[in-house]
Amino acid sequence: MPENYLTVDQVRAVELDASKNRAIVGGPGSGKTLVLLYRAALLSKQLGSPPDRYRMFVFTRVLRSYIASAARFLRIPDECICTFDSWCREYYLGNVGRRVPTIQSDRGRQPDFELIRREVLMHLQQKLMLPALYDFVLVDEAQDLDATALQILSLVSRHVTVCIDQKQQIYEKGSSVDTINSILGIPKPSVSFLGAYRGCPYVARLASEFIDDAAERSQFLRQTKTVQEGRQVPVLYRARDGYDEKDRLIQVVKSRLNQGDRIAILFPSQRHVFGFATGLAEAGIEVETPDTIDFSTQKPKLMPYPSAKGLTVDSILMPRLINRGFGHMSEARITRWLFVGSSRASRWVFMSTTEADSLSALSRLEPLAAEGAIEVQVSSSANDDGAHHASGDVLGLSQSRLFDGQDAEKCAASDAQDDDGYGDLLDLL
Question: Are 211 and 243 part of one and the same domain?
Fold first, then answer.
């Protein structure tokens, strides 16, 4: 067993027998993804399962790419790791119909994943007497799967292990721990991780403010552990306007790159991603978006919040924290997104908004400012508007030059739920 990398609790989770379905509960930085990888390697050896007899399901394409190096280190073939909806799509094309159903949205036509899941489930239910497709499947971020997906899992595999963190449920149609346990026949979580090892205590304190339940918030803080020596206070920048916010973001990105940080910049939507990517490129900063991410480079990674699930980076930058940027999203969902985003950082978090449209959820940070656990910076009025406008409008997301047919297709494909990630997986510990 990998004693150099795993804690006692993590080793115990890896070594759980496969006689029954299992659930593992843990917060950000507790090493759930790493545990699943080691468990996949162990079970494939114990059960004698070839690559076509097991799968590890992750929620986003980014996370799949993120863990690829660790998977290869453990000799887990690439084809054994995939997103759940990509697997459903392939199963549909191979067993149900020649063309997957699509749905029209404001981003164009895209796969109707809900209908695909339902029809895959119906097909599997009609073949109950056939042997299971897999000896075992492992599922990361199971709280974001709906009941249909969980029923599919129960039918396709002899054994299912799921990892759960209810605080990171970012999709409204996800499932509670009780629902997951009920559908999969798990009486209670098999293992609960008591420690999160990701990073700076200031980051944990910041993330905790986006946990609504006081008891859960207290538990999260108690469980957070770190051996990190350098501690940097997060920053909330209140910009005069979008141009000022853009200029400050450019300064911050250049500064963190000079410090050698791995950076991820998170946005409310894919439209923001491609708009900012263009603006940063014009400022001389090479970046990567979900369709170009290469985790071996130090280039800043731009992605929507859902794509960041499961990742760890040095610095997280969260611009555009304005009401207009999140549209009609509920307050509860916004706070879950902000928790997921801020808890990705191991060293430092930068957040920015504009005075005229500041996201209401940011009021939660006022106690942190009072105790010095976050630095609130306010834009200087010394800069004139002309200077800002001369630097180019990275926020002009409606400008047609940013969205030719190719970019619109990228937005549609990436927003469809197959998402993305970054970093060295072993940094989770």
Answer: yes
